[in-house]
What does this fold into?
Amino acid sequence: MSKGLLKRFLTSGVKKGRLGVVYSDGSADTFGEAAPGYPEVVVRFTDSRVPRDIILDPRLGAAEAFMDGRLEIEEGDVMGLVTLLRLNNRWEKGGQFAPPSVTRKVKNRVTWLAERVNTALTSKENVAHHYDIGNDFYALMLDPEHWQYSCAFWNTERFGEDMTLAQAQRAKLAHIAVKLAIQPGNTVLDIGCGWGGMAIFLAQNYEVEVTGITLSEEQLALARKRAQAAGVANKVRFELIDYRVLAERCRAANSQFDRIVSVGMFEHVGQPQFETFFQSCATMLAEEGVMLLHTIGRMGGPGTTDAFTRKYVFPGGYIPALSETVSASEKARLIATDVETLRLHYARTIRQWYANCLANKDAIIAMYDERFFRMWTFYLSGAATVFEAGGMCNYQIQYARSRHALPLTRSYLEAEESRLLNKA
It folds into this structure.
């Protein structure tokens, strides 16, 4: 029965490109027709439970079958497989990639509702799940210059189509820095500072004092070492603290920051905490201050986190829609002074990370095991393709507390960005 349901699902879901499936009983089917730009992939199921698992929850079922070696890819790779499925179900055309069964959907929703509130304690645990798996691992995947684990900015008009990941990450840092409209002597708060790349970049290029906060002990230790090596330890300090705790400390001390930046952290806040996050930011931001939020976002309305991502990648995470992000920030009287949507930049970034992981496959397996490598490449494949054909993008939202805090036009951005990139 499950085999028949899977055939119906793939017949309707794969029209362009070709997907070959070899079942555990030796029978085989081919779905779709060859088409330019669409991959051709052949998979083999090593046991009879795989069709059932995929039908119950296509993302989680296929992921775990792949991780366990019960779904083997004989021609192509996991990126090609997920790309093929995504391209046949583009978000713009109303397609929905791999919805779970009604029963599993209800179960997933209930579990998601139970996990969605991020307290300070659970936030630290969730961050550790993903970011404390080891700096040595991330060194194999990320750009070594800036250690950026967020969407790069592919300014190909300036650097050409063959620009490197490191160039694109520097371009991202510059693109964000100019939107902060930094003035000499400003104090800057970096919420979710990662391995210190943003804080170090600002300290190297401006006369500022930067405070970076994180909940990852692994990131904190390396960020401090990197700031020391970059010669900016006197201008940058890092602290292991939750943004809510810091906001309370600032309120008690009646202290504020001139600028706030947060890159790739808002996805971990949790939907019920959106208003708390922005109220905390408003508390910590000076009256004439400026804030820049860089986050993954949904191009449609609010949604839920799928079971695979919640279980294996980002527990407690939630990708916000633009509508709910701005709605929450409005309640803190933060003015959205500029909004930019990055549509394809993250897809290109993640494909670079995927290529780095493939190049370092043996080292990654030696660190962990084959199952981890399969899980991680499945995650990267899904992440890349959801920005190419699914409903995800990146938003950069510039905020101010005062309508007088920024120049009247956006002309200041281009000149300052050019200055920063010319220093490279």
